[in-house]
Amino acid sequence: MLRYTRRATVAALSALALTACGAADTSNAQEGRSTSGDVALTDITLGSEDAPLILVEYASWTCPACLQFHTDVMPMLKADYVDTGQVKFVFREFPTPPANVSVAGFALARCAGEDQYYNVIDDLFMAQTNILNLARSGGNIEGALRDIASSYGIEGTGFNECLANQDVTYAIGESVMKGDSQGVNSTPTVFINGERLQGFDWRTAEGMKTLLDAKLGVPEASESTAE
């Protein structure tokens, strides 16, 4: 897990404009989509509102342990539990170092709108290794983020507007504060119906499946096949 540094995240949130990722040359930028009308400013959920289990994950797309969870557990969780109406999934941003990069990526996800939010999160996770390498080498992080943003119509001045959007900044800050109120200090941290998961079994697909089935009252395989 990555430990969360609140001071760094607060600083990143307060300086989310383009300077957070490096000064941008916008002299030749073309007009992009405005982000003022369709941004996601509340929790973005997947699954049925009537699902018996609510799973809340506090995570950061710049956190390698979160990438492992996203890669190994999420496909099973979504296909077997979210899409079948048994789990409502809530992803809450909890930026980790480099906090300014993490916050900027989350801002772009929110600016893409609720219907594209999780697609952007997927793309950010896929780009994690490359972007962290750029961060270590002083490479063009902004260019990498612009490439992702452009896939969702956020380009040119629209990119700048997104990172300067104070409503978006506030929404990410709200997510962090919710985590603070629940004692979150590392990522990923997962709650099911308000109960924080302990240990590490849930960070594997098999372990998460066992845990969810137990909470749903699903008989173990040996029991269900017994005569």
Please characterize this protein's 3D structure:
- This protein has helices at 6-14, 64-72, 74-82, 99-111, 117-126, 128-137, 141-150, 157-164, 166-181, 205-216, 221-224, and strands at 2-3, 45-46, 53-59, 87-93, 186-187, 189-192, 195-196.
- The chain has eleven helices and seven strands.
- It is an alpha+beta fold and 227 residues long.
- The protein starts with a strand and ends with a helix.
- Strand 6 and strand 7 (195-196) form a beta hairpin.
- The strands form two sheets. It has a five-stranded mixed β-sheet, sandwiched between helices. A two-stranded antiparallel sheet has the order 1-5.
- The protein is 48% helix and 11% strand.
- The chain has a single domain (2-17, 39-210), classed as Glutaredoxin (3-Layer(aba) Sandwich), CATH 3.40.30.10.
- Helix 1 (6-14) packs across helix 4.
Q: At the fourth CATH level, what is the homologous superfamily?
A: Glutaredoxin
What's the architecture in CATH terms?
A: 3-Layer(aba) Sandwich
Which CATH class is shown? Alpha Beta
Q: What would you call the shape? A: globular
CATH T-level fold name: Glutaredoxin
Strands across the major sheet, in which order?
A: 2-4-3-6-7
* Count of distinct structural domains: 1
Uncertain stretches of 5 or more adjacent residues: 14-36, 223-227
* H/E series: EHEEHHEHHHHHHEEEHH
**Terminal residue distance:** 43 Å
**Radius of gyration over C-alpha positions, nearest whole angstrom:** 18 Å
Q: Which strand-content bin applies to the residues?
A: 5-15%
Taking the sheet with the most strands, its summary is:
5 strands, mixed
The total of beta strands comes to 7
Number of helices: 11
Helix content: 40-55%
Mean pLDDT: 85
Assign the structural class, choosing from mainly alpha, mainly beta, alpha/beta, alpha+beta, or little secondary structure. alpha+beta
